[in-house]
Amino acid sequence: MQVWWRIRLPRLSVRGVRDRLDEARPRSPKPQLHTTDDMSFFSRVALVCSVALVMVLAGPEPGQAQDTFADHRYTSEAIEAGSRVYVAECALCHSRRGDGVDGVDLRRGVFRTASSDEDLRRVITTGVAGGQMPAFDLRPFELDGVVAYIRAGFDPSGVAVKVGDAARGQVLFEASGGCASCHRVNGRGPRTAPDLSEIGAVRTPAALQRTLLDPSAALLPINRPIRAVTRAGETIRGRRLNEDTYTVQLIDSQGRLRSLVKADLVEYEVSETAIMTPTTLSSDEVADLIGYLLTLRGLP
Fold first, then answer.
1. Cβ atoms of 235 and 229 closer than 8 Å
2. Is the pLDDT of residue 59 over 60?
3. What pLDDT does residue 19 have?
4. Which residues fall within 8 angstroms of residue 288, CB to CB, at 6 or more apart?
5. What dotted CATH number matches 166-218+277-293?
6. Distances from the Cα of 170 to the Cα of 67, 119, 164, 252, 278, angstroms
7. Quick one: pLDDT at residue 167?
8. Which contacts of 116-124 are long-range, i.e. CB under 8 A and separated by 24 or more positions?
9. Could you give phi then psi for residue 268, rounded to 5 degrees?
10. CATH class label, 221-270
């Protein structure tokens, strides 16, 4: 989608612009305008017009023209539509807060059996055996809206991230996604990147999505990459774990725990750019990976 900037310029002749500039200049006893001044004035006018033209043609910044996260989220219209359907059809049993059924808290994303968005759709359209929950015959946009409202945490103005299949997400994590080459889960894997064994209990779907799509923006200060050079000439790179006035502790690139005394360093740098690069997975694969990460809540 092309976005155009429109700039309104006052309709002034060259003489009018000169008069405006003359009015803004300090008055001297005998103001004069020489030929060289004329040339300087017209050069300034040409420069201003050139800059304005470049701004019009260039348009907005790339990040403003397209939302990187749009393909991975439900729309605000879907969330609002879902809130109306939920109040009319679901709130009687589940309550306005989503915690009216034992073992289920829809607002917080706690379910008995469902985990993915497709699981939620299936439960809504087929019901729960034994008459615990009837089946609902909703139109597609109403069904998507209810799922979006649940994923937004019952906040009509919130963010609803799509959550896919956890089993497919685990395959991506351990293989083509490349996550297991750096992250540790339940005692398995390297330590060069943060341990994800309990990530599903401490991160929301929106936070997980941001980490996958824009790692540097989601990088916690304590996990920032560091580079240190000792007096002996050794260069150490790794992930910061802890730091105080005199020392810094880190996991180096070989996965070893190191503690460095700052007085023994000749160089020490902390980067705000994550080592992890933005994912190249498709929107459906990102949803599946988020679905798997949400299941990681520590060993039972």
1. yes
2. no
3. 60
4. 164, 165, 166, 168, 169, 172
5. 1.10.760.10
6. 27, 17, 11, 26, 18
7. 95
8. 116/163, 116/164, 116/165, 116/166, 116/287, 116/291, 117/147, 117/151, 117/162, 117/163, 117/164, 117/287, 118/164, 118/165, 120/146, 120/147, 120/150, 121/147
9. -150, 120
10. mainly beta
105 touches 99 (CB < 8 A): yes
Overall pTM > 0.85: no
Any idea what the Cα angle at residue 63 is, between residues 60 and 69, rounded to 5°?
140
Domains 70-151 and 166-218+277-293 share a fold: yes
Distance in angstroms (rounded) separating the CA atoms of residues 18 and 58: 29
Residue pointed to by tokens 């310029």? 9
Report the alpha-carbon distance of residue 96 to residue 168 in Å, rounded.
33
CATH of 70-151, picked from 1.20.1440.230, 1.10.760.10, 1.20.58.480, 3.90.1150.10, is 1.10.760.10
Note whether 243 and 250 are within 8 A (CB): no
Read off the amino acid at residue 56. V
Q: What pLDDT was estimated at residue 125?
A: 95
Tokens of 164: 């896919």
Residue range 220-250, pLDDT digits in tens = 888 899 999 999 999 999 999 999 999 999 9
10 pLDDT higher than 60: no
